[in-house]
Amino acid sequence: EEEGEEEEFEEAETDAKLRRHVNLVFIGHVDAGKSTLCGHIMLLTGNVDSRTIEKFEHEAKANGRESWKYAWAMDITDNERLKGKTEECGIAVFNTENKRFTILDAPGHRNFVPHMIGGASQADVAILVISARKGEFEAGFDKNGQTREHVMLAKTVGVRQLVVVVTKMDDPFVEWKSERYDEVVSKLGPYLKQVGYGPNEVKWIPISGYQGFNIRERVPKATCPWYDGPSLLEYLDEMKPPERLMGRPVRLPIIGKYKNRGTMAMGKLESGTLKIGDKLVVMPNKQPVVVDKIYLESSSLDIAEPGDNIRVQLSGIEEEEISLGFVLCSPDSLVPIVKKFQASVNILEYKSIICAGYSCVMHIHSVVQEVTIDEVSFFF
Known about the structure:
The chain is α+β, with helices and mostly antiparallel strands. It has helices spanning 2-18, 34-44, 50-62, 78-83, 113-120, 136-141, 146-156, 178-195, 232-238, and strands spanning 20-27, 90-95, 99-105, 125-131, 161-167, 202-206, 251-253, 256-259, 263-268, 274-275, 279-283, 287-296, 299-301, 303-304, 309-315, 327-329, 359-364, 367-372. It has nine helices and 18 strands. Strands 7, 8, 9, 11, 12, 13, 15 and 16 form an eight-stranded antiparallel β-sheet that branches. Strands 2-3-1-4-5-6 form a six-stranded mixed β-sheet, with helices on both faces. Strands 10-14 form a two-stranded antiparallel ribbon. Strand 2 (90-95) and strand 3 form a beta hairpin. It is globular and about 60 Å long.
């Protein structure tokens, strides 16, 4: 039995190395169908079995929420399931033929935007989920909706590729008609261009997140005769992987920590490569550490590459000496410690005046820090 477990562990490790790793964040307005889509992806890729979905369906039906059965694969807390709203950034993993994906299911409600920022800062590609249902696209796209804000935030934190999935195409109001799909594209497209996403950085795909049409298998021509493109998973598997900063100094912002036979730190390796035995420095407290072990999902690695969401076992530092937002760095290239810096700021909507002396909260990677504006300059 032990030999079988060891073979399975080695197979998982080899499999993880062969596939290119891509981090996906699912963004969009509240109730657009993000968690339902994520849960259905997990079912179609074999990461959640049909019995589990049947169990979720039975429990959801008992609460009068039968349609939430797929969403419960991602929304795991009692509060999320009771309200039907994602509050924290859910994480899951699935594989396609050529790639390994980490799902970051970001909350859509405006009260949980900080969690959305945390998820987007870990992502390479954003999946913008748009509901084609009458009134739902309009609610998300108006000035009080989260569609605009999520797109702007994703672009701001560095997500360079965007996949727009227009879901709920099976709704009785829509019935897979091209007119509604074209309406969404014509209204949302100019805004994406305004934010900075060029035509080559955006892919549009119609789907049904609940029925599963055009997620793994292409939607049947009898259902949608006007769409000739790939399914969602087909496109994700074939798309060009993001460029990685392989030859740069190590940068790993720490998003989590715990004790388990040593000090464990979690985060996405932004640049450089990480190997067992590497000597690094935790900034800003300038604490030297040594990498004892590296874990990716359930596998151990000898080397991690940029884009990997990993857990690192460190020696030379205690868990309580690390704060979220600290950064693991190469010893010969430390991140600078500053009290002031210049920033380019886009103001989406604000009813008061922003001037010198204005205080606000800054989110950058996993850092949440109160800051004060000393001086305001305008660029036209």
